[in-house]
Design a protein that fits this description.
It contains four helices and 24 strands. With 370 residues, the protein is mainly β. The strands form six sheets. Strands 12, 15, 16, 17, 18, 19, 20, 21, 22 and 23 form a ten-stranded antiparallel sheet that branches. Strands 3-5-8-9 form a four-stranded antiparallel sheet, with no helix packed on it. A three-stranded antiparallel sheet has the order 2-1-4. α3 runs parallel beside α4. The longest helix is centred in the first third of the chain and has 17 residues. The protein is rod-shaped, with a radius of gyration of 52 Å. The termini are far apart.
Length: 370
């Protein structure tokens, strides 16, 4: 008995699959066409009749989407229209460009920069036969001294800057000539500045200040310089009165210069000694024998020596440039004890000389041998 034709359906399906595989291997049809589901409408029925063709409209062809093969195909890097290198895939090409840009925009001591690549960069498919380079080789081409890339990095930052104060000297008619008083002590100010630095491929090309804001005003130092003068010939009613008698103690001129400013009250100020003219470094002598009790800086008097002559009598030698004695030294009248200078509140070299009895200053004119 002859078997019906429909019993061979399984055999026909297997044969069809084998033929489709051969076609795919030899490239005559696509895999989508080869392994599409087999329609039972094209097979014979048990009665041996072929089915009638369907009258429904055909399904339109849909173009297949790109596969991963396009990303992993050989790709050339094109910068400003020039081919730089070919790598084995587009992913590798893009990764190398990103690494090069990151390297060329890196800046020391900066955590953030506005980065702009001033090149036109393209990625084009390359032929399989075209020679390619490794990622490391391509990176060396892109970050070397002859790199075609131009990467601009802009950094903005703020810092505090010092505003330098000034020293102003102002003449003061109510202060004896040669004396100085600091009226206002100065200080530096502060300002907050915003800067912009522009780097190209990591090299600083420009630096500019965008803004500045004063946060602390500077205060200038104001020094009053005395210009008042008086008669230096002899004491007058403004030069004080003679103090206690010194019982035969003698005092000599403390330096070779003439008196240039007298003792006493002048134009609202009080000068408690005599000023002798002299050049910087001229010798200063002990006016009377005694013991050195001080040899140090004393504020406005500058570098000063004080000698105790006994019986509560002391002499002072101020504005010195240097001292030749130490505390505790015994000196004789006429010994060199220092040199004329301009230390302390003083703008010209001279010697300021005081004579004190029990702590009170008296006009030395009444006691020294001029």
């Amino acid at each position: 008995m002859k078997k019906p034709r429909w019993v061979n359906i399984t055999f026909i399906a297997a044969l069809t699959a084998a033929l489709s595989l051969c076609c795919v291997l030899f490239g005559s049809i696509s895999p989508q066409e080869a392994f599409a589901p087999i329609s039972t409408e094209s097979l014979p029925t048990p009665s041996g009749e072929l089915p009638v063709a369907s009258t429904s409209p055909e399904t339109p062809n849909v173009e297949p989407s790109p596969t991963y093969m396009s990303v992993y195909a050989p790709t050339s890097i094109i910068i400003d229209g020039n081919k730089i290198a070919t790598l084995l895939s587009e992913q590798a090409a893009r990764s190398v460009i990103a690494e090069a840009i990151d390297y060329l925009s890196s800046i020391d001591d900066s955590s953030y920069a506005d980065v702009v690549v001033e090149n036109e960069i393209e990625y084009t498919a390359a032929l399989l036969t075209e020679s390619s380079v490794t990622s490391d080789e391509a990176l060396m081409l892109l970050i070397g001294s002859d790199t075609p890339l131009k990467v601009r990095a802009t950094v903005r930052y703020s810092s505090t800057e010092r505003i330098e104060s000034k020293t102003i000297m102002q003449e003061y008619a109510f202060l004896g000539r040669g004396m100085r008083i600091i009226k206002t002590y100065g200080r530096d100010g502060l300002k907050l500045c915003t800067f912009e630095d522009v780097y190209v491929n990591g090299i600083l090309k420009s630096k500019s200040m965008l803004s500045e804001e004063v946060v602390l005003d500077a205060i200038n130092t104001l020094i009053l310089v005395g210009i008042a003068t008086s008669s230096a010939d002899s004491p007058d009613e403004d030069d004080g009165q003679m103090g206690p008698t010194l019982h035969g103690m003698r005092f000599i001129r403390p330096c070779a210069g003439d008196i240039i400013f007298n003792f006493g009250n002048y134009s609202g100020g009080y000068h408690m000694g005599l000023d002798f003219e002299g050049a910087l470094g001229d010798e200063v002598y002990a006016s009377c024998s005694g013991v050195v009790v001080s040899a140090s800086a004393r504020g406005g008097l500058g570098l000063m020596i004080e000698i105790d002559h006994g019986n509560g009598i002391t002499t002072r030698y101020a504005h010195l440039d240097s001292v030749k004695v130490q505390v505790g030294d015994t000196v004789d009248m006429g010994d060199v004890i220092g040199a004329i200078g301009e230390s302390g509140n003083c703008n010209t070299p001279h010697l300021h000389f005081e004579l004190r009895i029990l702590g009170f200053a008296y006009n030395p004119r009444f006691y020294i041998e001029l």
